[in-house]
Design a protein that fits this description.
By secondary structure, the chain is of the alpha/beta class. The protein has two domains: 12-202, Rossmann fold (3-Layer(aba) Sandwich); 213-326, Rossmann fold (3-Layer(aba) Sandwich), CATH 3.40.50. The chain contains ten helices and eleven strands. It has helices spanning 12-19, 23-30, 47-63, 74-77, 91-99, 157-174, 221-231, 253-258, 271-281, 318-322, and strands at 35-39, 68-71, 104-105, 115-119, 128-134, 137-142, 186-189, 213-217, 242-246, 285-289, 311-313. The chain has a seven-stranded mixed sheet with strand order 3-2-1-4-5-6-7. A four-stranded parallel sheet has the order 10-9-8-11, covered by helices on one side. Strand 8 (213-217), helix 7 and strand 9 form a beta-alpha-beta unit. Helix 3 (47-63) runs parallel beside helix 6. The longest helix has 18 residues, at 157-174. The protein is globular and about 60 Å long. It starts with 11 loop residues before the first helix and ends in an 18-residue tail after the last helix.
Length: 340
């Protein structure tokens, strides 16, 4: 994807509003904050680690355009991409698609530019954050003093969360929002967010079932995040999953910076079609609904044409959210120890 540059950057706007920077100055500040993804060779055999690296790359290039590198060995660069077999990519090829052809750097020597994010079996180094996970737990902290977790792959979302926490720490430090950011250890369990991540109950169970169909309502930045999470789940056969994509709007340039799956090639395309293209290239099936969501919408419960009753909502409109109540989606889900 390479460097991003927008007339009205939603990320730069924070610096423009708070510090009265010009748009040019704000972008220059972001482009001075170099980030390097430092990858150990064991990333080659780990679905969760590959997903964590690719998530970090996708977010980082949007926060810090043009200054994100990935330090990988030739062996790792040539390794098979474990996500999305239909793309027939190497791991290095997937990183190049996200970061650009000049972003891959070798692993020789001890010095890499900027702020490091460390993945896999590399030794600790200063000025780097360890990005790690285990089960449903994600953890990020200074590499010196933060050993890797066992990185058992119970739930692929933990790898996504670990990458997101790492980029959150970097951005909080870059923007001067938190003096603790990058100097502390942060962690969260997606299974039991109420527990300390060291609690054995925070680890969660092995995921055994994945959704075969559901709605994604609204395909902006939150909808993009839903699709990244859904589209990176480890389906044995992605063709078994079908996603109903609901939006009426078109992609604008500013969406590319805040939407993790959109690229500049999607600008002016309908969001449904850009999202569908991304999913179908990865083997998933899609259905598209291109209209505003309103009080007239109802899930089709006809036995012959039955639609899913599970929906993920990414609306930014209170009016649309209000109308969810009459759409006949499932109102509530709960865990009773055996089934939803």
């Amino acid at each position: 994807m390479g460097a991003l540059d927008f007339e009205l950057s939603r990320i730069s706007k924070f610096l423009i509003d708070r510090d009265q920077d010009s748009a040019e100055t704000a972008l220059a500040r972001r482009q001075s904050f170099a980030v390097t993804l430092l990858c150990g060779d064991n990333v080659a055999g780990s679905y969760g680690l590959q997903l964590a690296v690719l998530t970090a790359a996708s977010i980082a290039i949007r926060c810090f355009p043009g200054v994100v590198k990935a330090a990988v060995s030739q062996k790792l660069a040539n390794a098979t991409l474990l996500l999305w077999p239909s793309l027939q990519l190497t791991f290095g090829g997937a990183l190049i698609d996200l970061l650009g052809p000049e972003a891959l750097v070798g692993t020789g020597g001890d010095v890499h530019p900027g702020h490091g994010l460390l993945f896999g079996d590399l030794p600790a180094r200063k000025n780097a954050l360890r990005v790690t996970f285990d089960g449903w737990v994600a953890k990020v902290g200074p590499a010196v003093g933060t050993p890797p977790l066992p990185e058992r792959e119970y739930c692929s979302l933990a790898g996504i969360l670990a990458a997101a926490l790492a980029l959150s720490e970097l951005f909080l430090a870059f923007a001067g929002i938190s003096i603790e950011a990058t100097r502390r250890t942060v962690g969260l369990s997606l299974w039991r967010p109420d527990l300390d991540i060291a609690d054995p109950n925070a680890l969660g169970p092995m995921v055994e079932y994945l959704p075969s169909e559901l709605w994604v309502l609204g395909l902006g930045h939150l909808g993009n995040a839903y699709l990244w999470a859904l589209g990176t789940l480890p389906y044995q056969d992605s063709r078994a999953a079908e996603f109903f994509l609901y939006d009426f709007d078109r992609v604008i340039r500013e969406n590319v910076e805040t939407g993790i799956i959109f690229t500049t090639e999607d600008v002016r395309c309908l969001k449904t079609r850009a999202s569908s293209s991304w999913l179908e290239k990865r083997g998933f099936q899609t259905r598209l609904i291109e209209r505003r969501f309103d009080a007239t919408f109802r899930v089709d419960n006809n036995e012959a044409t039955k639609e899913p009753v599970l929906a993920l909502c990414g609306f930014d409109s209170n009016t649309a959210r209000r109308d969810l109540g009459s759409a006949q989606f499932r109102k509530r889900a709960w865990w009773d120890g055996g089934q939803f």
